Amino acid sequence: MRADTIKDIRRRIAATGEDRMRTRALVASGAWRAADDDATRCAAFDARVKRDSGLAEAVQGTNDFQPAAFLPEGAMARRAVGRVALQTPQLSISGTGFLISPELFITNQHVIADAAAAGQATIVFDDELDERGQPRPRTIFRLAPDRCAVFSDEKDLDYALIALGERVRGDATPEELGYCPISFTPDRHRKGMNVNIIQHPEGMPKTIAIRNNLLTARTDTRLLYETDTDFGSSGAPVFNDQWDVVALHHYGAPSGSGQGLAAAGADADEAAVAAPAKKHARGKSGAARKTVASAALPPATSASVNEGVRISSIYQDLQSRLPRLQAGAELLRRALALWVDSSPTSGRQLERRAPPGNAGGTATPAGAAASPEPRMLKRLPEQAVLDTDYGDRNGYNARFVPGVKLDLARIAAPRKRVIAPLQESATGAAPGELRYQNFSVVMHKARRLALLTATNIDGARWLAIDRKTGQPAADQPEGDVWYNDSRINASYCVGQSFYSGWSHLFDRGHLTRREDPTLGEFAARANADTFHFTNCTPQHWKFNESIQYWQGIERYVLEKGVFDSGRDKPLTVFQGPVFDDVNDMWADGVQVPSAFWKVVVWKGAAGLKAVALVADQTALFSLARRGSAPPPKDTPVNVVQWRASIPAIESKTGLDLAPLRAHDTAGGALPVVGEALLPITRWEDIPLE
After folding, report:
1. What pLDDT sits at residue 431?
2. Which of 213, 386, 514, 554 could bridge 227 with an S-S bond, Cβ 3.0-4.6 Å?
3. Are residue 618 and residue 519 in the same domain, yes or no?
4. Would you state the pLDDT for residue 582?
5. Residues of the chain with confidence (pLDDT) below 70
6. Is 361 part of any domain?
7. Bridge-partner residues for 307, per DSSP?
8. Is residue 425 one of the residues assigned to a domain?
9. Are 473 and 466 in contact (CB under 8 A)?
10. What total of structural domains would you count in the chain?
11. Closest CA to 283 of 144, 195, 127, 160
12. DSSP characters over 448-489
């Protein structure tokens, strides 16, 4: 590892010293749960642990209880870990790495520097001792950098991702070895938890360091933790207790401060330079020897400090490279979609109840194979023909309303870190902007739902669309066909499997309404575009029946604020889900929006105007759909619709709507305390002037 890289690492270690000491002290006092101040991440992590293991994390002290599956699941994960062996006339390198798919292997870039080095390396799997202390039969593969090779410099994310090549020895197949999928969700770690590492220290047979290894600090791209590692451990997977990969190990050194820290790193670096033929010459840039016991922590100066690259950062970097990747793009695309649980879990989970009258009527007995339903040909229930050449979509127009530029990039800028990256981006589009006909969508990469949609409505050419034909006509019942968008990885979007599994509670709800962007000659295309899952959110099945003000605000503005007085006709509508990390409900790892917000902007006779609304659906969650039968006529429905101020919307969403504050029709009519919301009970409660 280069001297400048080690210098950067030492700087991070020094900068996180106070945070690491605080974490250690809290763990020692039994209050480890206070170590991480990211409430959303903590709720997500705790719910995932409870769901996957059936055991809640300890409130006081650490919880060393693990389900019996902890050991066999770890045994499965360990087979995907291999020893990197690279022999050249100049040096001998040993490191660790692991399969992220049956086709792709990852290690550190400071272990395998480039495609030329990858072509000389071999990967040794099952290099370990069995239960009798005897070596297992090993299997050796070459790498195939011509099929796929992606590198991030050691000073950046320090990874080398290379395609697995031919097998040159042994019998194990990639399918038998398995893989450790990588993901980007926020429910995989929290500070104060234990981590586990499977590695080949000093080029030795496979070794594990489990439990009592504290995760003590986190930066934007790194995790710092205390565990046993050694030369040759570089590239090892760092796991949580559910055997999810949370980091790619790349450095370890005894912690300390001042000269002590510098000396520890320097000694390790000098050892590598002085003995280039030794197996650890480039495989490790520091030694870490001391295991930390959470019950009685030793002084910080004797603890091990290890640094790993956050696997979520690697995932997102790989995702961003896909559009530019020549060789191996399909291999990488498949690998990034492999993680089993494709959604974060957090908060209180809704109880999952299969709707009565489901297919078959009774559960399949344990161990019995379910009889497959015969597959039937059918006509599409919705004749909205989708044009998948997205290059001709105009998207949202920031200057659609005269006299103001409502720039989407500026609006979303405060949330730029959570915006999902795209595989294809349109020229001039805002970061993460998916352009459709007359509207655009920006996705939240962790929640996998839209951060917001932005829609242009031309009242003079606004057309209703026949749901059966996809052509302008009167309203018809909801259709069944929704579409994925090839410009964004499917892992960033909640899809049909979720809505099928939770159909007793949720419908696929439009954000941009299907009729809103339908104007002019491309009305049919705009209608079809609203049926993308990117424009879809989990809305309670009674929600759309109960929100006359929410659903009708656009028409109300067109009729009362524009048409009646002959003023300009363009409207812009921003809308999206409202999330409450403390109180939201969760369904199969999807955070269900507690409410939805909407801002309508237009130019009236007195100038620019904006009106904001919020509709809350949480009161409906106890009402489940019973098969296909409608509820009794007297079933109470309680959806509270609120008049909101523009600052209140900004507070709830984190978006920047500053250009609209001075034009807010709420003015001083709303409370000056709390969240500035007033319930709507009649149209007159929504001022347009």
Report:
1. 92
2. 213
3. yes
4. 72
5. 48, 50-64, 211, 228-232, 253-303, 340-385, 460-480, 520-521, 544-568, 625-640, 642, 667-689
6. no
7. 224, 251
8. yes
9. yes
10. 2
11. 160
12. -SEEEEEEEEETTTB--B-TTTSSB-S--------B--TTS-
pLDDT of 176 reads 93
Please say which residue of 315, 332, 349 terminates a domain: 332
The one-letter amino acid code at 45 reads F
DSSP state of 302: G
- In angstroms, the CA 661 to CA 37 distance is 32
Q: Which helix (H) or strand (E) holds 553?
A: helix 548-556
Phi first, then psi: what are they for 161, rounded to 5°?
-115, 120
Alpha-carbon gap, residue 23 to 35, rounded angstroms: 5
My answer on whether 397 and 327 are in the same domain is no
Inter-CA distances, 137 with 69, 125, 133, 134, 279, Å = 25, 9, 13, 10, 22
Q: What's the burial of 238, exposed, middle or buried (CB within 10 Å: 0-12/13-18/19+)?
A: buried
Structure tokens, 101: 């798919």
Alpha helices in 64-177 (DSSP H): 70-78, 115-120, 174-177
- Tell me the C-alpha distance between 478 and 677, whole Å: 31
Do the domain assignments include residue 381?
no
Q: How far is CA 391 from the centre of its chain?
A: 26
Q: 412 and 326, same structural domain?
A: no
What local confidence, expressed as pLDDT, does residue 586 receive?
84
pLDDT for the residue numbered 588: 78
d(CA 536, CA 514) in angstroms, rounded, equals: 11
Strand partners, 152: 159
Tokens of 393: 């979509």
346 is a domain residue: no
Instruction: Examine the domain organization and report whether 244 and 322 are in the same domain.
Output: yes
H helices of 322-381, where?
Answer: 329-336
Return the DSSP state at 529: H
Q: Check whether residue 321 and residue 455 sit in a common domain.
A: no
Q: Which helix (H) or strand (E) holds 359?
A: none
Of the residues 332, 353, 373, the one at which a domain ends: 332
Contact criterion met (CB below 8 Å) for 541 and 355:
no
Quick one: residue 283, left, alpha or beta (phi over 0 = left, psi -120 to 50 = alpha)? alpha
Q: Which sign does the torsion angle of CA 197, 201, 207, 213 carry?
A: negative
What's the rounded Cα separation, in Å, for the pair 518 and 525? 8
Q: How high is the pLDDT of residue 114?
A: 94
6, containing H or E segment: helix 3-15
Three-state secondary structure along 192-211?
Answer: CCECEEEECHHHCCCEEECC
Residue with tokens 């496979």: 206
pLDDT number for residue 524: 79
Q: What is the CATH number of the domain that holds 501?
A: 3.40.570.10
Contact 451, 419 (CB under 8 A): yes
Q: How many Cβ atoms from other residues are within 10 Å of residue 668's Cβ?
A: 8
Q: How far apart are the first and last CA of the chain?
A: 65
Asked if 689 and 664 count as a contact pair (C-beta separation under 8 A), the reply is: no
Structure tokens at 71: 């050991």
Q: Given this model, what pLDDT does residue 331 score?
A: 93
Query: What is the C-alpha separation between 664 and 656, in angstroms, rounded?
Result: 14
Res 38: pLDDT: 81
- Listed residue (397, 394, 419) closest to 408, CA to CA: 397
Distance CA 250, CA 448 (A): 30
Q: Is 443 helix (H, G, I), strand (E, B) or coil?
A: strand
Q: What is the CATH number of the domain that holds 112?
A: 2.40.10.120
- Continuous segment of H or E residues that includes residue 149: strand 149-152
593 residue type, one letter? P
